[in-house]
Amino acid sequence: MKNIFSELTNILDKLDEDREEIIKKSRDIVRDCSIAIKSIHRVDELIYDEKVIKIKNDLKNLKSLINTNPGHFYKYLKTPEQEYVEAVILHSIIQKQKMPGHIDLDIDALHYVLGLADVIGELRRHVLDNIRMSKREYLNEILDKMDELYTFLFSLDYPSGMTKDLRHKTDVARNIIERTRGDISLSIQMNKLTILLEESTKKDK
Description:
Layout: H1 2-41, H2 45-66, H3 70-73, H4 78-94, H5 102-105, H6 109-132, H7 139-154, H8 160-163, H9 166-204
Helix pairs in contact: 1-2, 1-4, 4-6, 6-7, 6-9, 7-9
């Protein structure tokens, strides 16, 4: 009995040790993804490129550690992969580049989809930033991308037990898009009104 429990203790100690390291690595990746996303909104390509390179390498190391016992650890890959997808896809859309797929990014297909759903919220932030800076040139183009993402996500009609929180994310995305559509319409109308007032003022002079 003593030998059996001694062996079990060794195994569980190693699992606990690996788990702690996995959690730390996962948090580091999520933090770097957050910085990468902020750098996209700030148009800081240097920081974005640096973070993406680091994230790729850290994800590779994280997967190696998880693969030592995937049955216990695979769940810890969900959040960092989602966040990575969110950063990369957001960047590709804003920069009008081709969107990489889950195979290109070496990401679990479900994690990829869940990350896509989160991109819609960041695109709204991008739209609002442009409205504040009076940049209205391609607001409707971004809105079209949000609609396109939502349409594809909504078409993934699978049991929630398989897709996790995708349905909830999709419902949230729909509300975000409708609010954004209203914000864009209001911004365009206000801009037209401003132009008309300026023209009217000039004529009065």
